[in-house]
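Hi! If you just cloned this repository, the fastest way to understand the data is to look at a raw example. We've pasted two of them here, unedited. The first protein comes first, obviously.
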Amino acid sequence: LPENRPRTLKRIPQIKQFPPVIDFLFFQRFDLKTQELTNTQFTFKDVLEAIEKTGVDLHWTRADTFLPEIARSRRTRDLLGSIHQYGYSLAIAESPTVIGEFVPIDSPRSIEIRNSVTVRIDEIHEQTSILFPKRFSLNGSQKGLSKFLKNDTVKRKLFGANNVLKVAARESSASASEFQVELGNRASETTKSICLITCKSSAIPNRARIATMAKFLKCDEVVLLVVATTRHVVAIPFRNCMLEPIESSRITFNLEFELAGSSQ
């Protein structure tokens, strides 16, 4: 990365800097009368021209980071809002000179679809039922997560022969929380750290976000625990996360409770 790239923990103001550049690139090519694009592709030289013309501050961006930064944002749909209304999105181009192109919003190549991880209720088929003494909250609760991970069935399904040694909370919000989990294997006397994210089905992070967190914590494995319903938790392990997260499997847990009551 460039030496002058911002290194503070303050978020880059993407919502202000990227949309003018995207709009400039799009409306240079889009005919409002015919509602058609005259040229769908653009180069990094085009991006630099758009930055200069619009006067935004994107001095750190490069040809290989411009679109990935948009894809990695939690507000990708807001950044692309102006072109979405015309039925278009962005895709990363596989070309040595062209870095991106405008594609139909429902294209499987669009950065939202290609990058997204989704869980639908109608996709939940095979379930592993687990009985707990009392009801607890999983998302946003380190105590609830620890209870869930201590269950022998959960440990075996998610971590094999590894035991959960420590659960450390990182960031938390009403819809998603991040944890660092230390695992240990008694047989081989080895330990490793993985990232774990609990979230609602409406707040599932995309693959770019997963990769960012994995690099920050130096964890090549990430597990998503998606609270799909009041009873169903879908576990999605990812590997190769510091390069390009690859989904390994999906495990649906059906949580049952002996005693009803408030969550803890």
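Ok, and the second one:
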Amino acid sequence: MKRRVVHTLQQWLANGSIQNLSEVMVLVRAHKSGVPLMAALREAGLAYTIKDKGERYTSQVWGDTIALLGFLNDPHANLHLLQLLRCPLIGLSSPQFQALIQAGKTTQNTTGANTVWSTLEALARQHERPWANLHAQLSEWLRMACALPLFETLSKVVTDTKASEKYLNSASPRQRVMMAEHWDWLKAWALGLNKGRFPSLQHALDEAVKLQTYASSDSSEGAANNGCLAHHDRAFRQGFGGKPRVAVRCKLVAQTRWQQCGFADRLGFG
């Protein structure tokens, strides 16, 4: 399907059937169909925007997935580690989180270190619970991420944290199906990155952020975009009756919730 879409778009541009890719909407029946389609469009140099009402890439679990990948790529990335610690994967309680923030202020005053990870390292050296065990677990994930393919690291994380069970228990009724299969889907996604070759953590993180950004695009913003639009079929049919007749143009929204509110800075981790 993806090759046929790319070939058709290239033909239409070449023979003048369309003047611009923004005149085209591509409907996909399932969320998983959008990932290989985006890869094919990107490889062909065809601009595109994703509009997905199916929620996967705008869901909290996808934001937590980005936080996990961001931490594995750079443990001193404060925003990613803070979100990881509070999400169901780790699930620090509010009192524990406040204790970590206070310890961070103390560590910064005594050692000059100003990252969440350096604070965890300092607490672990004091053999304090739960910090020593938490630091050991996170360190093991980091070692695996440096030495093994990403999907194996993800398998370890899912097993250690009982991720599927935790997210399923916290899901709304409408999201239960997505939550039930998300982590298996994620391992398959990691295997498919970089045309089946093992991707770097930076590559995986960049791709995950792109998916979130494209899925968050909002046609109500009104800015013109020169790319074609890939849209989830069911959501489109519900909203427009299933007959695309006009070009739809979207603006990309690039900032995440954490970046917008300056969360790490407010907590004292500069």
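That's it. A detail worth noticing about the second one: The longest strand covers residues 228-232.
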